[in-house]
Amino acid sequence: MTEFGMYLASGTEEPIVPLPQLAEVKLQTMLDWLSTFGADAKGGVTRLLYDKAWCEAQHALAARMQEKGLIPEFDQSGNLYGTLRGTDSEAGVEHLPIVTGSHIDSVVYGGKYDGALGVAAGVLALEYLQQQFGAPKRTLQVVSLCEEEGSRFPFAYWGSRSITGVTSFEEVQQLKDIDGTSFAQAIREAGFGPDSSYRAAAQKYGAFIELHIEQGQVLERLGHSIGIVSDIVGQKRFSITVSGEANHAGTTPMSWRKDALAGAAEMITSVRRIAMAAGEPLVATVGRITAEPGVGNVVAARAVFSLDIRHIRQGSIDRCWHDMLQEFSRIASELQLELNWEEHLSVTPIPMNEQITSDIQKICEQEQLSYIHMPSGAGHDSQIFQPACPTAMIFVPSQAGISHNPLEYTAEEDLMRGFRVLVQLLYKYGYGS
To answer: Is residue 92 within 8 Å of residue 136, measured between CB atoms?
Structure first.
Protein backbone atom coordinates (compact mmCIF):
# COMPACT_ATOMS: atom_id res chain seq x y z
CA MET A 1 0.00 0.00 0.00
CA THR A 2 1.29 3.48 -0.85
CA GLU A 3 1.99 6.09 1.80
CA PHE A 4 -1.08 7.96 0.56
CA GLY A 5 -3.15 4.77 0.68
CA MET A 6 -2.13 4.07 4.27
CA TYR A 7 -3.06 7.64 5.17
CA LEU A 8 -6.55 7.22 3.72
CA ALA A 9 -7.03 3.79 5.24
CA SER A 10 -6.25 5.15 8.69
CA GLY A 11 -8.69 8.01 8.40
CA THR A 12 -12.38 8.02 9.23
CA GLU A 13 -15.29 8.81 6.96
CA GLU A 14 -16.28 12.31 7.98
CA PRO A 15 -19.04 14.53 6.60
CA ILE A 16 -17.99 17.58 4.65
CA VAL A 17 -17.05 20.56 6.72
CA PRO A 18 -19.04 23.82 6.64
CA LEU A 19 -17.15 26.45 4.65
CA PRO A 20 -17.76 29.87 6.19
CA GLN A 21 -17.23 33.03 4.16
CA LEU A 22 -16.58 31.06 0.96
CA ALA A 23 -18.56 33.64 -1.02
CA GLU A 24 -15.88 36.19 -0.14
CA VAL A 25 -13.26 34.30 -2.17
CA LYS A 26 -12.71 36.26 -5.38
CA LEU A 27 -11.54 33.58 -7.81
CA GLN A 28 -12.64 35.45 -10.94
CA THR A 29 -10.84 38.57 -9.70
CA MET A 30 -7.60 36.65 -9.36
CA LEU A 31 -7.99 35.16 -12.83
CA ASP A 32 -8.56 38.65 -14.23
CA TRP A 33 -5.40 39.79 -12.44
CA LEU A 34 -3.34 36.91 -13.82
CA SER A 35 -4.60 37.64 -17.35
CA THR A 36 -2.98 41.10 -17.25
CA PHE A 37 0.40 39.36 -17.54
CA GLY A 38 0.68 38.75 -21.25
CA ALA A 39 -2.58 40.47 -22.23
CA ASP A 40 -2.58 41.14 -25.98
CA ALA A 41 -4.35 43.57 -28.26
CA LYS A 42 -6.76 40.86 -29.45
CA GLY A 43 -8.22 40.39 -25.99
CA GLY A 44 -6.40 37.17 -25.21
CA VAL A 45 -3.33 36.08 -23.28
CA THR A 46 0.08 35.17 -24.67
CA ARG A 47 2.34 33.92 -21.90
CA LEU A 48 5.07 31.60 -23.16
CA LEU A 49 7.65 29.67 -21.18
CA TYR A 50 10.43 31.96 -19.85
CA ASP A 51 9.25 35.05 -21.76
CA LYS A 52 8.79 38.43 -20.07
CA ALA A 53 5.07 37.99 -19.32
CA TRP A 54 5.62 34.51 -17.89
CA CYS A 55 8.47 35.70 -15.64
CA GLU A 56 6.44 38.63 -14.37
CA ALA A 57 3.44 36.38 -13.64
CA GLN A 58 5.46 33.77 -11.73
CA HIS A 59 7.24 36.36 -9.59
CA ALA A 60 3.98 38.21 -8.91
CA LEU A 61 2.43 34.93 -7.78
CA ALA A 62 5.39 34.30 -5.47
CA ALA A 63 4.86 37.72 -3.89
CA ARG A 64 1.12 36.99 -3.51
CA MET A 65 1.86 33.66 -1.81
CA GLN A 66 4.23 35.24 0.67
CA GLU A 67 1.82 38.08 1.42
CA LYS A 68 -0.91 35.57 2.32
CA GLY A 69 1.19 33.38 4.58
CA LEU A 70 2.36 30.67 2.21
CA ILE A 71 6.05 29.83 1.83
CA PRO A 72 7.07 30.50 -1.82
CA GLU A 73 9.88 28.58 -3.47
CA PHE A 74 11.13 28.20 -7.05
CA ASP A 75 12.98 25.21 -8.44
CA GLN A 76 15.58 25.16 -11.22
CA SER A 77 12.94 24.61 -13.91
CA GLY A 78 10.95 27.65 -12.79
CA ASN A 79 8.12 25.74 -11.12
CA LEU A 80 6.79 27.80 -8.21
CA TYR A 81 5.54 26.27 -4.96
CA GLY A 82 3.48 27.84 -2.20
CA THR A 83 3.63 25.72 0.96
CA LEU A 84 1.29 25.55 3.95
CA ARG A 85 3.28 23.49 6.41
CA GLY A 86 1.50 20.83 8.45
CA THR A 87 1.71 20.41 12.20
CA ASP A 88 2.75 16.76 11.76
CA SER A 89 5.84 17.99 9.94
CA GLU A 90 6.65 20.46 12.69
CA ALA A 91 6.31 17.61 15.19
CA GLY A 92 8.85 15.58 13.25
CA VAL A 93 6.34 13.31 11.45
CA GLU A 94 7.01 13.67 7.74
CA HIS A 95 4.37 12.99 5.09
CA LEU A 96 4.69 13.62 1.39
CA PRO A 97 2.77 16.85 0.65
CA ILE A 98 -0.67 16.96 -0.94
CA VAL A 99 -0.27 19.21 -3.97
CA THR A 100 -2.75 21.08 -6.13
CA GLY A 101 -2.15 23.43 -9.03
CA SER A 102 -1.67 23.60 -12.79
CA HIS A 103 0.26 25.71 -15.31
CA ILE A 104 0.34 29.41 -16.19
CA ASP A 105 1.89 29.26 -19.65
CA SER A 106 -0.58 29.73 -22.49
CA VAL A 107 -0.97 29.18 -26.19
CA VAL A 108 -0.53 32.22 -28.44
CA TYR A 109 -3.68 34.40 -28.19
CA GLY A 110 -5.16 32.04 -25.61
CA GLY A 111 -7.76 32.54 -22.91
CA LYS A 112 -7.53 33.40 -19.22
CA TYR A 113 -8.80 30.09 -17.74
CA ASP A 114 -6.77 27.23 -19.23
CA GLY A 115 -4.23 26.20 -16.59
CA ALA A 116 -4.50 29.50 -14.76
CA LEU A 117 -7.71 28.34 -13.03
CA GLY A 118 -5.90 25.50 -11.27
CA VAL A 119 -3.13 27.82 -10.09
CA ALA A 120 -5.41 30.64 -8.90
CA ALA A 121 -7.79 28.20 -7.21
CA GLY A 122 -4.90 26.42 -5.50
CA VAL A 123 -3.46 29.63 -4.08
CA LEU A 124 -6.85 30.85 -2.87
CA ALA A 125 -7.77 27.43 -1.45
CA LEU A 126 -4.67 27.30 0.75
CA GLU A 127 -5.16 30.92 1.81
CA TYR A 128 -8.79 30.18 2.68
CA LEU A 129 -8.04 26.98 4.60
CA GLN A 130 -5.33 28.69 6.64
CA GLN A 131 -7.58 31.63 7.48
CA GLN A 132 -10.56 29.49 8.46
CA PHE A 133 -8.96 26.41 10.02
CA GLY A 134 -5.35 27.30 10.81
CA ALA A 135 -2.42 25.04 10.01
CA PRO A 136 -3.24 21.61 8.54
CA LYS A 137 -1.98 18.34 10.01
CA ARG A 138 -0.41 17.39 6.72
CA THR A 139 1.56 19.78 4.49
CA LEU A 140 -0.40 21.25 1.60
CA GLN A 141 1.19 22.86 -1.45
CA VAL A 142 0.10 24.70 -4.56
CA VAL A 143 2.34 24.52 -7.62
CA SER A 144 2.38 26.93 -10.55
CA LEU A 145 3.97 24.70 -13.14
CA CYS A 146 6.35 26.43 -15.49
CA GLU A 147 5.06 24.86 -18.71
CA GLU A 148 2.47 22.50 -20.15
CA GLU A 149 1.41 23.75 -23.57
CA GLY A 150 4.58 23.39 -25.65
CA SER A 151 3.76 26.73 -27.31
CA ARG A 152 7.29 28.12 -27.41
CA PHE A 153 9.50 25.05 -27.73
CA PRO A 154 8.53 21.81 -29.52
CA PHE A 155 8.11 19.95 -26.25
CA ALA A 156 5.24 19.83 -23.74
CA TYR A 157 4.87 19.18 -19.98
CA TRP A 158 8.37 20.39 -19.08
CA GLY A 159 7.25 21.47 -15.60
CA SER A 160 5.72 18.15 -14.57
CA ARG A 161 8.30 16.10 -16.46
CA SER A 162 11.15 17.80 -14.63
CA ILE A 163 9.47 17.28 -11.24
CA THR A 164 8.84 13.59 -11.85
CA GLY A 165 12.25 13.05 -13.44
CA VAL A 166 10.77 11.82 -16.72
CA THR A 167 12.86 14.34 -18.69
CA SER A 168 16.17 15.97 -17.85
CA PHE A 169 17.48 19.41 -18.78
CA GLU A 170 20.13 17.76 -20.95
CA GLU A 171 17.43 16.24 -23.15
CA VAL A 172 15.80 19.59 -23.98
CA GLN A 173 18.57 22.20 -23.73
CA GLN A 174 19.27 22.25 -27.48
CA LEU A 175 15.64 22.77 -28.52
CA LYS A 176 14.99 26.10 -30.26
CA ASP A 177 11.97 28.34 -30.53
CA ILE A 178 10.73 29.97 -33.73
CA ASP A 179 13.23 32.82 -33.31
CA GLY A 180 16.19 30.47 -32.94
CA THR A 181 16.59 30.96 -29.18
CA SER A 182 17.73 27.77 -27.51
CA PHE A 183 16.01 26.32 -24.46
CA ALA A 184 19.28 26.63 -22.54
CA GLN A 185 19.54 30.33 -23.34
CA ALA A 186 15.89 31.04 -22.50
CA ILE A 187 15.99 29.32 -19.11
CA ARG A 188 19.24 31.06 -18.21
CA GLU A 189 17.91 34.51 -19.21
CA ALA A 190 14.83 33.88 -17.04
CA GLY A 191 17.10 33.22 -14.05
CA PHE A 192 16.59 29.47 -13.78
CA GLY A 193 18.41 26.34 -14.94
CA PRO A 194 20.94 23.95 -13.38
CA ASP A 195 23.43 26.77 -12.77
CA SER A 196 20.91 28.84 -10.79
CA SER A 197 20.74 29.01 -7.00
CA TYR A 198 17.36 27.26 -6.86
CA ARG A 199 16.88 23.65 -5.74
CA ALA A 200 16.59 20.79 -8.21
CA ALA A 201 13.12 20.26 -9.64
CA ALA A 202 12.72 16.60 -8.66
CA GLN A 203 10.19 16.16 -5.89
CA LYS A 204 7.83 13.47 -4.59
CA TYR A 205 4.15 14.14 -3.94
CA GLY A 206 1.67 12.40 -1.67
CA ALA A 207 -1.00 13.22 -4.25
CA PHE A 208 -1.67 15.72 -7.05
CA ILE A 209 -5.11 17.27 -7.63
CA GLU A 210 -5.79 19.53 -10.62
CA LEU A 211 -8.82 21.76 -11.08
CA HIS A 212 -9.25 22.65 -14.76
CA ILE A 213 -11.78 23.89 -17.28
CA GLU A 214 -13.19 21.09 -19.42
CA GLN A 215 -12.21 22.71 -22.76
CA GLY A 216 -15.13 20.88 -24.34
CA GLN A 217 -18.94 21.00 -24.48
CA VAL A 218 -19.96 17.87 -22.58
CA LEU A 219 -20.68 19.38 -19.14
CA GLU A 220 -22.55 22.35 -20.57
CA ARG A 221 -24.63 20.29 -23.00
CA LEU A 222 -25.55 17.66 -20.41
CA GLY A 223 -26.18 20.22 -17.66
CA HIS A 224 -23.61 19.01 -15.13
CA SER A 225 -21.58 21.20 -12.78
CA ILE A 226 -18.59 18.94 -12.22
CA GLY A 227 -16.66 16.51 -14.39
CA ILE A 228 -14.76 13.82 -12.49
CA VAL A 229 -12.00 12.75 -14.85
CA SER A 230 -11.77 8.97 -15.19
CA ASP A 231 -8.94 8.81 -17.72
CA ILE A 232 -6.74 11.11 -19.75
CA VAL A 233 -6.57 9.98 -23.35
CA GLY A 234 -3.49 8.63 -25.03
CA GLN A 235 -2.36 10.28 -28.22
CA LYS A 236 -0.43 9.53 -31.37
CA ARG A 237 0.55 12.33 -33.73
CA PHE A 238 1.99 11.87 -37.21
CA SER A 239 3.09 13.76 -40.29
CA ILE A 240 1.96 11.93 -43.43
CA THR A 241 3.85 12.72 -46.65
CA VAL A 242 2.41 11.80 -50.05
CA SER A 243 4.75 12.21 -53.04
CA GLY A 244 3.78 12.22 -56.71
CA GLU A 245 4.81 14.18 -59.79
CA ALA A 246 4.31 17.85 -60.67
CA ASN A 247 2.82 18.32 -64.12
CA HIS A 248 0.77 20.66 -66.28
CA ALA A 249 -2.86 20.99 -65.16
CA GLY A 250 -4.12 21.41 -68.71
CA THR A 251 -2.12 18.89 -70.70
CA THR A 252 -1.89 15.92 -68.31
CA PRO A 253 -4.86 13.52 -68.64
CA MET A 254 -6.56 12.63 -65.37
CA SER A 255 -5.76 8.93 -65.67
CA TRP A 256 -2.02 9.61 -66.18
CA ARG A 257 -1.54 11.89 -63.21
CA LYS A 258 0.43 11.21 -60.04
CA ASP A 259 -1.50 13.78 -58.03
CA ALA A 260 -0.21 13.89 -54.46
CA LEU A 261 -2.95 16.25 -53.27
CA ALA A 262 -5.73 14.07 -54.71
CA GLY A 263 -4.22 11.09 -52.93
CA ALA A 264 -3.94 13.00 -49.66
CA ALA A 265 -7.58 14.08 -49.99
CA GLU A 266 -8.72 10.46 -50.29
CA MET A 267 -6.61 9.51 -47.28
CA ILE A 268 -8.04 12.33 -45.19
CA THR A 269 -11.57 11.26 -46.09
CA SER A 270 -10.72 7.74 -44.95
CA VAL A 271 -9.56 9.10 -41.56
CA ARG A 272 -13.07 10.25 -40.73
CA ARG A 273 -14.66 7.04 -42.01
CA ILE A 274 -12.36 4.76 -40.00
CA ALA A 275 -12.70 6.87 -36.84
CA MET A 276 -16.50 6.90 -37.08
CA ALA A 277 -16.53 3.13 -37.51
CA ALA A 278 -14.32 2.71 -34.42
CA GLY A 279 -16.88 4.62 -32.33
CA GLU A 280 -16.59 6.96 -29.36
CA PRO A 281 -14.53 7.98 -27.50
CA LEU A 282 -11.95 7.58 -30.29
CA VAL A 283 -11.25 10.77 -32.20
CA ALA A 284 -8.97 11.34 -35.17
CA THR A 285 -8.13 14.73 -36.62
CA VAL A 286 -6.34 16.16 -39.64
CA GLY A 287 -5.72 19.77 -38.73
CA ARG A 288 -3.09 20.83 -41.23
CA ILE A 289 -2.29 20.17 -44.89
CA THR A 290 0.26 21.70 -47.27
CA ALA A 291 0.82 21.09 -50.97
CA GLU A 292 3.79 21.73 -53.26
CA PRO A 293 4.39 23.53 -55.46
CA GLY A 294 1.10 25.10 -54.36
CA VAL A 295 0.23 26.60 -57.76
CA GLY A 296 -3.32 26.53 -59.13
CA ASN A 297 -2.39 25.24 -62.59
CA VAL A 298 0.13 22.58 -61.54
CA VAL A 299 -0.62 19.02 -60.39
CA ALA A 300 0.72 18.74 -56.84
CA ALA A 301 4.02 16.87 -56.50
CA ARG A 302 3.87 16.59 -52.73
CA ALA A 303 1.29 16.86 -49.97
CA VAL A 304 1.88 16.70 -46.23
CA PHE A 305 -0.88 16.41 -43.64
CA SER A 306 -1.04 15.99 -39.86
CA LEU A 307 -2.85 13.18 -38.09
CA ASP A 308 -3.87 13.12 -34.42
CA ILE A 309 -5.48 9.98 -32.92
CA ARG A 310 -6.78 9.84 -29.32
CA HIS A 311 -8.55 7.29 -27.11
CA ILE A 312 -8.59 6.16 -23.48
CA ARG A 313 -7.32 2.70 -24.48
CA GLN A 314 -3.95 2.15 -26.14
CA GLY A 315 -5.18 -0.89 -28.08
CA SER A 316 -7.88 1.19 -29.77
CA ILE A 317 -5.34 3.83 -30.79
CA ASP A 318 -3.02 1.19 -32.23
CA ARG A 319 -5.82 -0.57 -34.15
CA CYS A 320 -7.07 2.70 -35.59
CA TRP A 321 -3.59 3.69 -36.76
CA HIS A 322 -3.07 0.21 -38.27
CA ASP A 323 -6.34 0.47 -40.22
CA MET A 324 -5.57 3.99 -41.42
CA LEU A 325 -2.05 3.10 -42.50
CA GLN A 326 -3.38 0.14 -44.49
CA GLU A 327 -5.89 2.40 -46.24
CA PHE A 328 -3.27 5.08 -46.93
CA SER A 329 -1.00 2.44 -48.47
CA ARG A 330 -3.82 1.11 -50.67
CA ILE A 331 -4.64 4.60 -51.96
CA ALA A 332 -0.98 5.39 -52.61
CA SER A 333 -0.49 2.18 -54.56
CA GLU A 334 -3.66 2.70 -56.61
CA LEU A 335 -2.66 6.26 -57.57
CA GLN A 336 1.05 5.47 -58.12
CA LEU A 337 2.15 7.64 -55.21
CA GLU A 338 4.86 7.27 -52.59
CA LEU A 339 3.82 7.25 -48.94
CA ASN A 340 6.00 8.15 -45.93
CA TRP A 341 5.09 8.90 -42.34
CA GLU A 342 6.76 10.13 -39.17
CA GLU A 343 5.50 9.76 -35.61
CA HIS A 344 5.98 12.92 -33.52
CA LEU A 345 4.19 12.01 -30.30
CA SER A 346 3.09 8.86 -28.54
CA VAL A 347 1.48 9.26 -25.10
CA THR A 348 -0.06 6.34 -23.24
CA PRO A 349 -3.61 6.70 -21.84
CA ILE A 350 -3.62 7.27 -18.09
CA PRO A 351 -6.45 6.36 -15.66
CA MET A 352 -6.88 8.66 -12.68
CA ASN A 353 -6.62 7.42 -9.08
CA GLU A 354 -9.79 5.57 -8.06
CA GLN A 355 -9.65 6.51 -4.37
CA ILE A 356 -9.42 10.26 -5.02
CA THR A 357 -12.07 10.18 -7.76
CA SER A 358 -14.35 8.31 -5.34
CA ASP A 359 -13.76 11.00 -2.72
CA ILE A 360 -14.57 13.71 -5.28
CA GLN A 361 -17.83 11.92 -6.09
CA LYS A 362 -18.79 11.75 -2.40
CA ILE A 363 -18.13 15.46 -2.00
CA CYS A 364 -20.27 16.27 -5.04
CA GLU A 365 -23.11 14.17 -3.64
CA GLN A 366 -22.88 15.77 -0.20
CA GLU A 367 -22.71 19.25 -1.74
CA GLN A 368 -25.61 18.33 -4.07
CA LEU A 369 -23.59 19.12 -7.18
CA SER A 370 -24.51 17.42 -10.43
CA TYR A 371 -21.53 15.45 -11.79
CA ILE A 372 -20.45 12.87 -14.34
CA HIS A 373 -17.40 10.65 -14.71
CA MET A 374 -15.76 11.47 -18.03
CA PRO A 375 -12.48 11.06 -19.91
CA SER A 376 -10.32 14.06 -20.76
CA GLY A 377 -9.80 14.40 -24.49
CA ALA A 378 -7.01 16.92 -23.92
CA GLY A 379 -3.63 16.19 -22.40
CA HIS A 380 -2.76 17.59 -18.95
CA ASP A 381 0.07 17.59 -16.43
CA SER A 382 -1.98 15.11 -14.39
CA GLN A 383 -1.13 12.37 -16.88
CA ILE A 384 2.55 12.93 -16.11
CA PHE A 385 2.02 12.89 -12.34
CA GLN A 386 -0.32 9.86 -12.10
CA PRO A 387 2.41 7.23 -12.67
CA ALA A 388 4.45 8.91 -9.90
CA CYS A 389 1.72 9.60 -7.32
CA PRO A 390 -2.07 9.32 -6.81
CA THR A 391 -3.61 11.93 -9.12
CA ALA A 392 -7.07 13.24 -9.97
CA MET A 393 -8.69 16.00 -12.03
CA ILE A 394 -11.82 18.07 -11.48
CA PHE A 395 -13.46 19.70 -14.52
CA VAL A 396 -15.79 22.70 -14.60
CA PRO A 397 -17.83 23.67 -17.70
CA SER A 398 -16.48 25.69 -20.60
CA GLN A 399 -18.99 27.95 -22.32
CA ALA A 400 -19.68 26.54 -25.81
CA GLY A 401 -16.65 24.31 -25.33
CA ILE A 402 -14.34 27.09 -26.52
CA SER A 403 -10.72 26.98 -25.38
CA HIS A 404 -7.27 28.11 -26.57
CA ASN A 405 -9.11 31.23 -27.66
CA PRO A 406 -9.70 34.71 -26.18
CA LEU A 407 -13.42 33.78 -26.00
CA GLU A 408 -12.66 31.03 -23.47
CA TYR A 409 -15.08 31.54 -20.57
CA THR A 410 -16.45 29.82 -17.49
CA ALA A 411 -19.16 31.48 -15.42
CA GLU A 412 -18.20 32.49 -11.88
CA GLU A 413 -20.79 30.23 -10.29
CA ASP A 414 -19.26 27.26 -12.15
CA LEU A 415 -15.77 28.29 -11.07
CA MET A 416 -16.88 28.43 -7.46
CA ARG A 417 -18.55 25.01 -7.57
CA GLY A 418 -15.27 23.50 -8.67
CA PHE A 419 -13.44 25.55 -6.05
CA ARG A 420 -15.77 24.27 -3.35
CA VAL A 421 -15.01 20.64 -4.30
CA LEU A 422 -11.27 21.36 -4.30
CA VAL A 423 -11.38 22.99 -0.86
CA GLN A 424 -13.33 20.09 0.61
CA LEU A 425 -10.87 17.59 -0.84
CA LEU A 426 -7.84 19.47 0.46
CA TYR A 427 -9.49 19.80 3.86
CA LYS A 428 -10.12 16.05 3.98
CA TYR A 429 -6.52 15.16 3.14
CA GLY A 430 -4.83 18.01 5.01
CA TYR A 431 -6.98 18.32 8.14
CA GLY A 432 -8.77 14.98 8.46
CA SER A 433 -8.19 12.32 11.12
So the answer is: no
Q: Give the pLDDT confidence score for residue 11 in this predicted structure.
A: 46
For strands 207-213 and 391-396, give the pairing: parallel
User: Are 116 and 39 a contacting pair, CB within 8 Å?
Assistant: no
How far apart CA 337 and CA 258 sit, in angstroms, is 6
Query: 153: which residues sit within 8 A by CB, 6+ positions away?
Result: 49, 172, 175, 176, 177, 183, 186
Lowest mean pLDDT among 8-22, 196-210, 222-236: 8-22
Beta pairing class for 207-213 and 98-103: parallel
Asked if 93 and 151 touch (Cβ cutoff 8 Å), the reply is no
- Give the sign of the dihedral formed by CA 260, CA 263, CA 269, CA 271: negative
Contact 207, 356 (CB under 8 A): yes
Alpha-carbon distance of 303 to 265, in angstroms, equals 9
Cα–Cα distance list, 191 to 54, 78, 161, 327 (Å): 12, 8, 19, 50
Angle at 344 between CA 181 and CA 323, to 5 degrees: 165
Cα separation, 85 vs 134, in Å, equals 10
- Are 294 and 283 in contact by the 8 Å Cβ rule? The answer is no
For residue 41, what are the contacts with CB-CB under 8 A and spacing of at least 6? Answer: none
On the question of a cis peptide bond just before residue 281, with omega within 30 degrees of 0, the verdict is yes
**pLDDT, tens only, 119-149:** 999 999 999 999 999 999 999 999 999 999 9
> Cβ atoms within 10 A of the Cβ of 347, count?
19
Q: CA angle 92-100-216, nearest 5°? A: 165
CA atoms within 13 A on the CB side of 162: 27
Count the neighbouring beta carbons within 10 Å of the beta carbon of residue 402. 16
**Would you state the pLDDT for residue 10?**
44
Q: What is the pLDDT of residues 318-356, one digit of tens each?
A: 999 999 999 999 999 999 999 999 998 888 999 999 999
d(CA 259, CA 128): 63
